[in-house]
Design goal:
heterodimer, A: mainly alpha, MetI-like fold, 14 helices, 71% helix, B: mainly alpha, 2 strands, 76% helix
Amino acid sequence: MAQAALQENIATPQAAQGPSLLQSRGMVGFLFMLPALVFLLVFLTYPLGLGVWLGFTDTRIGRDGVWIGLENYQLLWDDSLFWLSVFNTLLYTIAASILKFALGLWLALILNEHLPFKALFRAILLLPWVVPTVLSAIAFWWIYDSQFSVISWALLRLGVIDTPINFLGDVENARASVIAANVWRGIPFVAITLLAGLQTISPSLHEAATLDGATGWQRFRYITLPMLSPLIAVVMTFSVLFTFTDFQLIYVLTRGGPLNATHLMATLSFQRAIPGGQLGEGAAIAVAMIPFLLAAILFSYFGLQRRKWQQGGGD
Amino acid sequence: MGVVTNAVPRNTATADESVGMSYLDRLPRRLVVVYLPLAVFTFVLLFPFYWMTITALKPNHEMTDFNNYSPFWPTSPTLEHIRYLLFETSYPGWLWNTMLVAIGSTILSLAASVFAAYAIERIRFSGSRYVGLSIFLAYLVPPSILFIPLAVMTFKFGIYDSKLALIFTYPTFLIPFCTWLLMGYFRSIPFELEECALVDGATRWQILTRILLPLSVPGLISAGIFAFTLSWNEFIYALTFIQSSENKTVPVGVLTELVRGDVYEWGALMAGALLGSLPVVLLYSFFVDYYVSSMTGAVKE
């Protein structure tokens, strides 16, 4: 409807002499922005505010809440499960992000070599990222089965272990398993985006450094890494944000178990709010994630700025 | 001037030049440093798909008996699981729902994003830089902190438990992404073309529809494919906003309806995962370059 209105409005005042309202940049720009703006205000900005407000109420499913101040947050402060979920989320985010970065960078460096069928490799290695997370997590669920896991079977055959590994039933194993599944899904994203960055680094830099006697490690450390660091900062910010707020993988694989060892803040928030019906408390947990997200964004933003400055770039 | 043609010459250029350095490596060294890790990466990254496919084709008794049957190959492959899925569950309905929701939200987001990106990038009204920045920040708002208030809102709007709830909420993450991508794309189209049109008396609307959009078809395809994939893969909103079986999307339906109590229909689950992945994988395989360029483009700006 906005488009139709636009068409009418813009077609007519062309003949008008002098600057009219519709020829001013502000007005035309505003009209073009309108559809996106309305959508984002109604379905993004408003819910964000509503979420913060819900965190201060005792809203339940089917009943409007009243303002109860910080009570939800006080409850959470004394809730050991909440703190466990904070710990789990941090562990999950940090471990998965470091692994994704290291392995992704390694894969990007490999793919940057001169390889036969490079485009094909690049295409198929991105598959874990393209396929719906829930559906690939179901495959992992079966791979991690306590009795019929193919990994256990292979290790048993090789004589490495005597009994099948209880992947998702043991605290440590479950944490490692969900991190591994998350890393599996995240590597392609990191690798392919970093590969795009690697391809913009001129080979002549490497040639010059080689002539000066630099070793492979030195070329990596003093050419590749500094040239890549702005992109690394952006990619890792995305990666950290999406890992921190991850929900799907945990929901499929463990639903937070065993002994809540894999409950993340997002899954705890869902569990309290939707099956538990405590919308207010769930919203409070979701709001508690915001400071962490802001910290991650600010950290990468200022990290990025500093690196630019070190490279001698203007502002 | 498209994304693809931009990317391809650069690739070949670096590939050609990297031959200049790689003669320094001997074959055994390359084998250990490049080919072996690549093989391991490829194996690990693709194995779950292989396992998914194999399990979907195995009859039930082979699935759990690794001693009498090879675990890596179905001895007597069967389409029983797929038949069960298609004819005895609501799976075709879920596929249809997912398709409708993905197409609906993609079209909605693309339309809104084209106008927004054009306004920010070309009309350059005062404050457009800040609007552009806030669009980027909007992309960083994760669904995990929005689903509770959005559930309350969809309930108040009376669209709870309907496909409309998903079609209207998915653009929250699609519009920022598409706008950001299209802004980058519009920037690559020479401004002079537009100036010529302005001099000839074209309106903003004519410039957008007659000049800019035809030139940015590759960018639109990139954004469209990516948006379609993102909405196909979405889970937390679909899980929260949809209750009735006939309105579920594939990821939610497979997970909530095919697992009943302790009875896991592994064959049907795997077949469901496989068939549910197929549309996005097919789309992806036809448009790999667009997909990669939109993924890297969104990050690089």
